[in-house]
Structures are given as C-alpha cells and as structure tokens.
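Fig. S4 source data, part A: sequence.
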Amino acid sequence: MTGLSDGQKGTLFGITANLIWGLAALYWIQTEPVDARDLLAHRAFWSVPVVAVCLLYLGRLGSTLSLFRQPRVIGIMALAALCSASNWLIFLWAVTNDRATEASLGYFLLPLFNVVVGLTLFRERIGTAQTAGVLFAVIAVGVQIWHHGGLPMVALGLVFSFGCYGAIRKAVSVGATEGLFLETVMMWPMAATWLLLRDWGGLGDYGLKVDLFLLGAGVFTVVPLIAYVAASRMLPLTALGLVFYIGPTAQLLVAIFAFGEPFDLIQGLAFGLVWAGLLIVTVDGFRRARQLDRLNIEAVTARTDSSL
C-alpha cells in the first residue's frame, strides 16, 4: 500500500476487517456442536502461535516481549484483553443460539457508539449529523426495549465490549500486531487450562471438518483484529463509522438468508432507525471530506501564487 495516506490505509484496513467479521457466522457455524465457551478457548489458544509467527517474520518478537516489563502497558492491555474476550464469547454464543440478527444490530450500533466515545474520551468534535445519528440509535434501542420488555442484551453487550476495546487500544502506543500478541498471551493460560479440563473442547470428537475449523480459529481471529486495530490507530473513531457498517450488513444478510432467522416488523423498525442514523453520519462525513479537500486545494493554490 505504498503511496497511500494513513486515512486511505485505515479505510482499507477497516473494510477488510468488517468483510471478514460480516461473514464470520458462516465460519463458526461449521464448528457445531462445539460449545461457545470451548470456541472462545480455541480462539485464544490458537491465536498466540499465529501472532508469534507474524512477529517473528517481522523481526519484532523480541521488542514485543520487552513490553512485559512496562506495567502501565500491561495493565491497559489486560483491560483490552478482557473486553476482547467478552466480545468473542457474546458473539459466539449468539451465532450458536440463533441470535445472529441481534448480534448484527449490536455491530450496527458500534459506529454510533464510537461517536460517543470519541466525543467523551478523546474530545473529538461532534456535529449536528452525528448527534442525530446517536439519537436515532437510542430510539432504536428504546423500540426494542418497549417491544420485548427488556434490553437487547446481546446487541448492547457486543457494542459495549467492542467499543471499549477500540477506545482502549487507541489510547495505548502499541502496534497492532504487538498489542494483539499481548492480549492473546494474557488469555492463553486460561484458555489452555479450560481446554485441558474440557478434554480439548471438542477437538477430535466431531470429525475432520470441525477439527480444521477449530485449528484455523487463530488465523481467522488474528487477521481481522490486526486490520481493525490498524484502522483505529490511523482514523479518528468518528471516521470509523463510515466503513464499519459493512460488517453488520453482511451479518444481517447471513442471519436472514443463510440461517433463516426471523426478521419481524419491530426488528425492521429498529434496524431502519439505525440505518437512518448511519446514513446521516455517512453523508455528513463525505461532505466534510469534500470541504477539507477543497480547503487543502485552496491552501496549496495560495502558497503557489505567493511564491510567484
């Protein structure tokens, strides 16, 4: 990606991560009937060697291991690991319990949650369009609470855990691959213990196909996470919303057409409200980008004229 700006690279990384996550349910459903808790352990366990090989190839494994001597970094990364593991478990449970549609709603809410985090924690500026987008999301959640008599816990759990993960990773000066290695190493002892106590969590019990998908859990986990963290470090959190709705759109389509999950009027209303908010934010983002390009062109023209 030589010659691309950080913004362009961040956008490409964001699209890559979300396309993979959007189709993730099709991957994890291949591991049935493995329990969601066992899948979480497999993801953490097999991710460590995959990330270690990446760092070894890049020549950064030694410098990454030295980060364990920095208590502040380790403390922050431990929080990131907790958020990441929580997100994995909620998503895996949703996919294996016919709740993929609700999981999709959670990730639709994520860009708007990022707007709130960017505003409150990183003091990013928020405009009228972004405020409207957040209000639409709040109304969408309210509609579901009114209809179902309770909070959409899967959706809120996913958006909160992953939104906090992105904010934490943005706050610490650790590279994408290095940070993921620290996170998964922290999860590894618990994952290994769990798999030993569970007789390797289904590995070897359900045939070669399931075994291959379990063993591939590390690669499937690592690639989009590295892309996501890279995108979060290259783009402001508010800008991530311009590309991150690709993933939940694919998730929703998979839930409806591949898994045959119901999509009733209330769900349609909730998703419609979120889509409306995302559309407002997206259109405003493109408008701001065009204004910035025009100002840059005018500044270059002014400098050129003054030098003549």
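Fig. S4 source data, part B ends here. The chain has a mean pLDDT of 85.
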